[in-house]
Amino acid sequence: MAVPARKTSKMKKRLRRTHQKVERPEISFDESLGDYRRSHHVSLKGYYKGKKVMK
């Protein structure tokens, strides 16, 4: 069984996790409302997929 020669430092461990990065939210223009909204989210006016879901 292979045994590492030295302990891996904290910095080296953290460098392996570089796939976790902040991405900007997907924003699309909703033509039925004439407003921008995030994908798969309720708009600020309370609409989702063209239907009123909130007051």
UniProtKB/TrEMBL annotation:
Q: Does the keyword Ribosomal protein apply?
A: yes
Provide ranges: composition bias, Basic residues: 7-19
Q: Which Pfam families match?
A: Ribosomal_L32p
The entry's keywords:
Ribonucleoprotein, Ribosomal protein
Matching entries from InterPro entries are given as: Ribosomal_bL32, Ribosomal_bL32_bact, Ribosomal_zn-bd
Annotated stretches, region: Disordered: 1-23
* Entry GO terms, CC: ribosome
Domain of life, per UniProt, equals Bacteria
Name the family.
Belongs to the bacterial ribosomal protein bL32 family.
Q: What is this protein called?
A: Large ribosomal subunit protein bL32
